[in-house]
């Protein structure tokens, strides 16, 4: 039988596994800290306290990813995906859009942009993308834990449901962080209850799509 993990293109696009360090992650680390430094300068210049809070959260998350990578040896392409998610988040809260573009808020930052008027926002796409990547990270962690115990690391339907559910749980934690931001910063672009609800729907959609891709690709490899 073909090894499902090696036959699955979605889980096999990264560099060979290895510990965090050396030249393996220098490009993604340099890229990430470069845009964070630029976001910090721009946030301070604009007096944007909300994004100074988010940059601090980003630094904590980078530390968490470093710890996970030491244990799991995440695919480098996964780390790039996480880094690009961070960039999209920084851009979403700091870049403004032209007056003629449709937005959902007077603040006119990229996060409020309607990609499809009254139907789909930039914010929702980034949520779906980010927690799709998170599902991939959860699967790699779950697979590593199973292999260490000598078990089969096939992406079965049940395991993919577990990985997607874990990512959805992390997405709820993201909403908690946004709630904390509204308590600490007088004015934010977080939005109200309806916005939170649509964020959670987008998170679940991204997690479901990612889990489905991993599962279907592995089944194709078996055949």
TrEMBL record:
Pfam families: DUF2238 (PF09997). The keyword Iron-sulfur does not apply. Keywords: Membrane, Transmembrane, Transmembrane helix. Signal peptide: none annotated. The chain crosses the membrane at residues 25-45, 51-69, 76-97, 126-145, 157-177, 197-218. This is DUF2238 domain-containing protein. It comes from Candidatus Kutchimonas denitrificans.
